[in-house]
Amino acid sequence: MRTRPAGPPMSAPAFRRLLAYCRPGFEGECAQELAALDARQSGAGYARAARGSGHVEFVSDDAPALAGSWRDLVFARQLLGVLGEARDLPPKDRLSVLLPMIEGEDPADGPCRWCDAWVEAPDSDAARELAPLCRGLEAALVAALKQRKLIDRASRWRLHLCMTATDAAYVAVAERTLSAPWPGGIPRLKFPRGAPSRSTLKLEEALLVLLDEGERERWLEPGMRAVDLGASPGGWTWQLVARSLHVTAVDNGPMDAALLASGLVDHLRADGFRYRPTRPVDWLVCDMVEQPRRVAELMAHWLAEGLCRHAIFNLKLPMKKRHDEVRLCLDLVAGALAASGRRVEVRAKQLYHDREEITVYARVA
């Protein structure tokens, strides 16, 4: 097998297509977001997607400029630049077709080098069956790249193979600091022992995806005070208590007995829409089942009135015009803060543990 001498990390690869992973059934919303993003550049791009596929392809002359926008998109779990696409791959030797596309030597810059290589499949029912193939192919790919000296841990770029069928794949790339650091854009979480409900995973994932490590360390200090609206039975409260925050859990329903015994939880049986703290708190979290605009208005009020500094909340989406509803709600929060003279930072994602909803982080900047 031919090898090449080591050299400097490669410059930015060239591509005109983007590949976004999303929740199956939300391809349309993901495409709308990409089109809106592209409109701020040239507006000449267009999307290709099949409902239920878990991914969207977007073609644009400005694709390289858009590729680092993963954090700005709500419905995209990951955003990649497409270097090529292969179909009718031979089942016994897929790498013979894929490696020439991956190597893509540029005489000026030398061969492409990658900090790592991931083989993954979209999160669709059909693609999940490809998981064993992805694991085996990834091991073979990484071994082949190492033998060719094309793995360079200093490189900015990570190689992705997205398998859409046993004989079809996208060859794609992501700049590691501007993309999701998890295969498929999904942090794999285990249900924590002792948590009272699976909803706890929503808040755990939100803290991982919407905050970086430094922000989690600075903004979730032991001893801080938080309010959990609609807390019963305590899945979100559990995450805050695990970080040694004092929590006022507001809900007319029962709370988990072990949480109450922790000494860090005060259970207040009250209406989450009417409750206000006697003094400002550090955190507000909310996972109430209610119309998204009503929740957004409530969160905007807390932030604008200075009742909290940070908020994480879920917005349950309608069946139709989900993208429009998201934009309306996020603009409502930002607008209310602007009207109050406060500046707010808003981040939002449809997380893996979300369903017909998105999760929003907002803070008074």
From TrEMBL:
Entries under Pfam families matching the protein: FtsJ (PF01728), RlmM_FDX (PF18125), RLMM_N (PF21239)
GO terms of biological process kind: methylation; rRNA processing
Domain Ribosomal RNA methyltransferase FtsJ per the UniProt entry, residue ranges: 197-290
User: Which residues does the annotation say bind S-adenosyl-L-methionine?
Assistant: S199, S232, P233, G234, G235, D251, D271, D287
Just give the chief location class: cytoplasm
Compartments in which it is found: Cytoplasm
What residues make up the catalytic site? Answer: K316
Q: Which GO terms describe its cellular component?
A: cytoplasm
- Locate the RlmM ferredoxin-like domain: which residues? 17-80
Q: What is the enzyme's class at the highest EC level?
A: transferase
Recorded catalytic reaction(s): these are: cytidine(2498) in 23S rRNA + S-adenosyl-L-methionine = 2'-O-methylcytidine(2498) in 23S rRNA + S-adenosyl-L-homocysteine + H(+)
The UniProt subunit note reads as follows: Monomer.
Q: Which family does it belong to?
A: Belongs to the class I-like SAM-binding methyltransferase superfamily. RNA methyltransferase RlmE family. RlmM subfamily.
Q: What name appears for this protein in its UniProt entry?
A: Ribosomal RNA large subunit methyltransferase M
Give the organism's phylogenetic lineage.
Bacteria, Pseudomonadati, Pseudomonadota, Gammaproteobacteria, Lysobacterales
Corresponding gene?
rlmM
